[in-house]
Design a protein that fits this description.
4-stranded antiparallel sheet; 1 helix; 30 strands; globular
Length: 398
């Protein structure tokens, strides 16, 4: 009975934080609760690490699950066959010359039995790291790194269309250049960028084909040039782009991967366009805007080539939504100081928060706590990578 009452109390606080275009909470999307009780899930296990960044998952052909986590050292690979006691398979070394002590930007995606990992670092193993996961549960093989077409090693994010085997790589530069070229190089020996996502008019996305030889990707083309790029999600014949310092989002038709075509672009109202992910049916997207801190996530109905319609917005407590991934009409968010969050968007105009599992004692809109989440398809497991506290496996109970 006590747990049920706590859930109702937490849900009431979160309801105050929901702001729908048609009514509801205030425009700032903010709740006033100093801290909330967890509900809708529990932490099944933890693995302590520091300097933690992104996380992703891998399901082997035999159904075994594994987690990948960016750490201060490199890439932590965990065997989750016993979810209550994760086993460290390896912690593969990665580049470590961070520009901000304690922060190591690493993001990863999986295609087939390979993981592809990027970071903003340029020391040995800079560029796109390739890890062979086919030897799990016994071992992980570091294959190599490859250098992006523009010659720059640093990359903030990537995504992979796993159906077509196309890797989309964020760039801070405008134009492709031959490997080894120093023209337009941001990472000159005497200067390294603090956060290479490009100015409003600087940036692009490279496409690499993994389908023929996943250990030797083939460069296809560069698009969305002269536009800041922070993150993108590639699904089928569409790529959804969060255009960072350009304060906009865009959608691209990539049916012809050699010639992507712009479908639509819309404004993020002067905020930093951080992350975007479509619903399973492609009818709406969820976006997050990390700066200024404390902004709500937003839900947009897609209207073809016309500008999307803002349907609703939400955030939990006083936290800042960081990244969102979708499974069908369920949104799973790394919500910084509020931990891992799940939001039911069966009705995208009326978001319903169904789980909140905290991973840090920090509160408020600061950028600390849960950096990334991954939802194992069809399984009530969500991973959360907490910057200072490490890996968390969350059992969802809603």
């Amino acid at each position: 009975m006590r747990n049920r009452s706590l859930r109702r109390l937490a849900a009431a606080f979160i309801t105050l934080a929901l702001a729908s275009c048609g009514g509801g909470g205030g425009d700032d999307g903010g709740a006033t609760a100093p801290d909330l009780q967890d509900f809708g899930g529990t932490v099944l296990s933890r693995v302590a690490r520091s300097g933690v960044a992104g996380t992703w998952g891998y399901t082997a052909p035999d159904g075994s699950r594994y987690a990948l986590v960016g750490t201060a050292k490199g890439v932590l690979v965990l065997d989750l066959r016993d979810g209550t006691v994760p086993r460290v398979v390896d912690e593969v070394d990665g580049p470590t010359n961070t520009t901000v002590p304690g922060i190591y930007w690493r993001e990863m995606r999986v295609h087939g039995s390979y993981a592809y990992v990027v970071s903003e670092h340029t020391a040995p193993r800079g560029g796109v790291m390739i890890l062979d996961l086919s030897g799990l549960p016994a071992s992980v093989r570091f294959v190599k790194t490859f250098t992006p077409q523009d010659g720059e090693l640093a990359a903030h994010t990537l995504d992979i269309d796993t159906a077509r085997g196309l890797l989309y790589l964020q760039r801070a530069t405008n134009h492709p250049a031959p490997h080894g070229s120093t023209k337009g190089r941001l990472n000159a020996p005497d200067k390294q960028p603090l956060h290479p996502v490009g100015g409003p008019n600087d940036g692009s996305i490279e496409i690499w084909d993994l389908s023929a030889d996943p250990e030797n990707p083939t460069y296809v083309t560069t698009f969305n040039q002269h536009r800041s790029v922070h993150d993108m999600t590639a699904i089928g014949d569409r790529v959804y782009v969060a255009e960072g310092n350009a304060s906009s989002y865009s959608i691209w038709d990539v049916r012809d991967a050699t010639a992507p075509a712009l479908v639509t672009r819309w404004s993020a109202s002067g905020n930093f366009a951080h992350n975007i992910w479509p619903s399973g049916d492609g009818s709406f997207v969820v976006t997050t805007e990390e700066y200024p801190n404390g902004l709500p996530a937003r839900v947009w109905r897609l209207n073809g080539s016309a500008a999307p319609t803002l349907l609703s917005q939400f955030r939990v407590g006083q936290g800042t939504p960081h990244n969102v991934v979708m499974e069908g009409r369920m949104a799973y968010l790394s919500h910084y100081t509020e931990g891992g969050v799940a939001v039911d968007l069966s009705d995208p105009a009326s978001p319903r928060v169904v789980a909140r599992v905290d991973t840090t004692p920090a509160i408020g809109p600061s950028l600390s706590g849960c950096w990334g989440v991954y939802k194992f398809p069809g399984l009530p497991w969500m991973t959360c990578s907490d910057i200072s506290r490490g890996f968390h496996l969350i059992q969802l109970t809603f």
